[in-house]
Design a protein that fits this description.
Helix 1 crosses helix 5. 31% of the residues lie in helices and 17% in strands. An eight-stranded mixed sheet has the order 1-3-2-4-5-6-7-8, with helices on both faces. 46% of the residues are buried. The chain contains six helices and eight strands.
Length: 259
Amino acid sequence: MAQQALPVREARLGSPLGNPLGRNGTRRAVNGVALVLPGGDATGVRRPSPVPALTVRPLAVRLARAGRAEGLTTHVVHYRCGGWNGAAAHPARDAAWALDEVVRRYGDVPVCLVGKGMGARAALHAAGHPAVNSVLAIAPWLPDARRPEEQPDPVKQLIGRQVLLVHGTNDERHDPDLSYRYAQRAKKVNRDICRFEVHSDGHSLHQHRSEVHALAADFMLGSLFARDYSRPVRDALAAPPPLGLRMPLASGFGASLRP
């Protein structure tokens, strides 16, 4: 597919969440960064709607709060345009730019890429960047390699990263079976991959939002700061396929975990 022309504009990082400044105005040490990548559309070179970024902001705030004591800073990435646009993969390029910007601002700190929908695909694509420690892909939008016109996304860039995918079984927008197939391929090159299924929930994961946010915080803290994972995450990472790739996210997950 020919690359679509992109209007001249730049991606940017949203304001840092997690209060990188101390009470006296001095900068606190940043020991890790979570980059949150919002969803989008398959095509579109116009400036993106603000809605996807606003949709992921509660998750970004939850992660910033969970990692505050560890020195975490969280940013939402604002794309140049609202679409993936075929081979141009504009959001993946913006994610790579955002990682370079994190290194420029904060130095050599580990980064967890957290993406939703199209942003999850961008996070998986950008995982090969040297700053990336881990990837959390929520309801990822992925190509259907069973169609002759589509090619499977690469997985080798995930080697050496800790990766968690989570998908609602009733997602009518992005087929959860495709994320399972992707996780199957990825598991063959990287053992540190697991996938959770949120039974009866749809693309937005509204019914179990608190559990998904708790899972995201648990994974982020464990991957960036070597905190102990919760038992379900440990079990999912250790279990062979298909068990570790179809781990059910239990109702009430996170209620007894750290705040």
